[in-house]
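Re: that backbone. Tokens:
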């Protein structure tokens, strides 16, 4: 796929109906020969829209107006390119816990959670957050995660978590203002509620930090999993992570995680982690597939705002 086509795809499948600013900006970049030429000098993984837009936001540049974005990007390209080469999209969206919860709450309790691609570990606290599934409230306090559920009853309990750990090539620290600033930059411009949710979730994590290990999802996973306490159900999980992993390593991870004890929960784009015979997606927007031990269960929206159960 060309860089221009990837920006059109992002506008149509991810930003449409979710972020008018990013939809407008992605379409503009797809037609911007000067910016496309600069992007094509970078490694393919560093050209993605989310990463470019977040870096410009982090540096204080404009993302609402495509003309202003173009001028800023050209004038500051050396600084932008330097950030693009060293950073990765690590959107640590705690709202995704709302679509993981139906699976986690149904597993044998208590749980030992191990997140692959954990970023700052904000998705390791499904037992600490509150949830609103329509009129159904679960838990209290902040953040309160809103999610629309179709095709099944919402969960009636939160899981019991006795151990939580994360594995990431570049773990982020919620007590470090610079790391929190990067997490903030990754949130789309209009999403004030997600920015507030990030701050609330970061407070939860900072009060009881998880074990975050710098490492590779294949080479270092077994050693970290071995630290889980006996008597707890080990759950290895990941959400919107595998698209950043080269296909051979992705396959090696899937082969490994299938042999491990406990359970494997995946929430990924079906183009990245394929499943046979999936039902029709609810609409044209990008959906992930929630799967347990390789069996697909539901369509989910990328920020955890909706889950549509199969069957």
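Recovered sequence:
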């Amino acid at each position: 796929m060309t860089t221009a086509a990837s920006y059109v795809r992002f506008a149509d499948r991810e930003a449409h109906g979710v972020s008018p600013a990013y939809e407008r900006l992605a379409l503009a970049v797809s037609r911007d020969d000067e910016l496309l030429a600069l992007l094509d000098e970078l490694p393919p993984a560093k050209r993605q829209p989310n990463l470019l837009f977040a870096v410009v936001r982090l540096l204080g540049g404009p993302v609402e107006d495509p003309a202003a974005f173009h001028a800023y990007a050209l004038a500051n390209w050396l600084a932008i390119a330097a950030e693009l080469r060293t950073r990765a999209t690590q959107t640590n969206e705690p709202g995704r816990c709302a679509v993981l919860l139906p699976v986690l709450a149904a597993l044998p309790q208590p749980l030992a959670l191990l997140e692959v691609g954990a970023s700052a570990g904000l998705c390791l606290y499904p037992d600490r957050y509150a949830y609103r599934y329509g009129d159904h409230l679960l838990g209290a306090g902040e953040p309160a995660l809103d999610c629309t559920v179709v095709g099944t009853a919402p969960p009636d309990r939160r899981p019991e978590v006795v151990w939580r750990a994360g594995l990431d090539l570049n773990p982020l620290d919620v007590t470090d203002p610079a790391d929190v600033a990067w997490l903030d930059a990754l949130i789309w411009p209009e999403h004030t509620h997600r920015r507030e949710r990030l701050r609330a979730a970061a407070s939860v994590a900072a009060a009881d930090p998880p074990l975050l290990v710098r490492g590779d999802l294949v080479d270092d996973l077994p050693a970290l999993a071995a630290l889980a306490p006996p008597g707890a159900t080990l759950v290895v999980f990941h959400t919107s992570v595998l698209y950043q992993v080269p296909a051979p390593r992705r396959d090696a991870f899937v082969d490994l995680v299938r042999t491990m004890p406990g359970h494997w929960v995946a929430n990924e784009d079906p183009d990245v982690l394929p499943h046979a015979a999936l039902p029709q997606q609810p609409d044209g927007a990008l959906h992930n597939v929630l799967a347990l031990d390789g069996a697909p269960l539901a369509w989910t929206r990328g920020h955890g705002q909706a889950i549509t159960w199969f069957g």
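The longest helix spans residues 192-207. DSSP finds eleven helices and twelve strands in the chain.
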